[in-house]
Design brief:
The complex is a heterodimer of chains A (328) and B (330). Chain A is of the alpha/beta class. Chain A is built from twelve helices and twelve strands. The two termini of chain A are 31 Å apart. The radius of gyration of chain B is 21 Å and the shape is globular. In chain B, the strands form two sheets. In chain B, strands 6-7-8-3-9-10-12-11 form an eight-stranded mixed β-sheet, sandwiched between helices. In chain B, strands 2-1-4-5 form a four-stranded antiparallel β-sheet, with helices on one face. The chains are: A alpha/beta (328), B alpha/beta (330).
Amino acid sequence: MKDLIRVDELSIGFGLKNWVIPAVEGVSFSVKPGETLGIVGESGSGKSLSARAILGLVPPGGLITSGSISYQPESGDAVDITSLPKNGRAIRKLRGAEIAMIFQEPMASLSPVHTIGNQIVTTLRQHADLSAAAALSRAIELLDQVGMASPAIIAGQYAHQLSGGMRQRAMIAMALSCSPRLLVCDEPTTALDATTEAQVVELLMKLQQDFNMGMIFISHNIGLVSEIADRVMVMYLGQSIESGATEHVLKSPAHPYTRALLNALPAFAEAGAELATLQGAVPDLTARPTGCSFHPRCAEFAGPQCETERPAIQVVTNQHLARCHLHE
Amino acid sequence: MNEPLLTLTNVEKHFPQSNGFLKPAAAPVRAVNGISFSIAEGETTALVGESGCGKSTAAKLITSAITPSAGKITLRTRDGNILDVGSLRGRARKALWRDVQLIFQDPFSSLNPRMTVKQIIAEPLRNFDIAHGQEATDLVADLMDRVGLQPGTMSRYPHAFSGGQRQRIGIARALAVKPRLVVGDEPVSALDVSVAAQILNLFQSLKKDLGLTYLLITHDLSVVRHSADRVAVMYLGNIVEENTTAALFKSPRHPYTQALLSAVPSQDNQDKPRIVLTGEVASARNIPTGCPFHPRCAYATDVCRLTAPTFEQLPTGGRVACHTPLEFMP
């Protein structure tokens, strides 16, 4: 099967032409239809930025310095999203219609002055030739599909009238309105309670199966990613440091950072036992360590090259990659 | 079990709501609805539940930030006196804060940006007349060392520190008065995984070294499983289940606890099916009749819809508020 999206050696930086702070460096990944890629990492690892670049949503001040993002439409040739003019007609035709996104904070990403129904109708009519009435009945149908109890009433309500879980469902309904082929979820359940999170995750998994969507699921919650994703990519300071099938990466992690991250989780530790911790904190992007970015916090030094030489991506086992000198 | 340090008996907190001037009052928000539990000295007790269940209101009641509408909260002070927390007003509350200190969720908004770290940590020392001048500076250095901060950085301002370091500053400030009960309101929810682990380890070592008692208020069950000795689960202002952590995680007896546990991904429930609750948490203004959980409960019967269950001691240990508790699995 062809890749739906293929990101190659993508680098994104912030700053001026001659003085750029790299925030994402040489990240590559791909997603096939019906597949879920989980991206995990701590704050500042560049996980959201890489995913947003797919929708052409690099924030102001940021620029793609190298690499390509190629999207394979249903018919025709692949499109390189990085080459499309920002907010031009071409990217707007893809965004929302073929590639949709769900954000972390539903309150901040829904309009407070338009009803839920109105917002879905706008999205629908932007991409499809529908009458206002037909779009509204489609919007109600979508709200029903995401499990809203009384969709017709919800369609007439404003975001502030809904609970957190319902807002996130409304966001999902909006994202799904044009039957996208790729869904990017940026921490979709972080703002939600545990039982509400369970409801939303269940819904996303069901909808993905129904529509055979490709999905990119960004989260710092490794436990959650292990349940949802087919493949996982772990990011640290803007680099992909490990990637592979979920069971490989999480059951037999190859990179010391992934190992440390898993050991630091209270969910995976013995009750009362001291949690393994990582030395120090994630360094600032402006003060990126030389050599391997992770070496000042690494407990499994491979040798002096860690301090001086940037490790290349190594193949650990089939399809399981790690960026570490240990695997040379 | 040690003697209880803090005891709550049928504590209620209702917030009256107004519909506007000269209009009939709206139904009050019943944030806490008659909770009873006690915290034994030297133990870590966790209060868990989802947003709106009243757990933060409980923390405010315990620290006397607000007064209960009904019920009694008592604290055994360091001199052995019994303090009625609910009735404290004005200056009398100072005696409570000598023994009970709070650690906040957000390390960014809970530190004054215009005070240096030294001033922040020394403030309680001055307020309680514990130390002044050079003596206070020495104590601040000790405290910073204790929580893993460089004492040499005490003249810096909070903005110069990372999230995890700021949380350590908040902990040092709480420890300055040598409290006996530390209430942590979501102390690690705002931190990254690796930093949260450092803070949780710090809590454990401080507990061992200083004999602290913790009340941990959190929605994160994996933190609870790791750090707490006892757990009380709250739902809509009521405690629905209370037990030792090991027993509660092994054999939850309340259907809500069961659903909450299954919603948390962890190593040992990888294969178990996730229990997905239907519907939403009801509003605290309009709590369902009978058992507050019945509209979402898969096992609800007629009796659940009509009568509220009492909070009963179980023969196998723990307490539960349910007409038909789930089977005990030893």
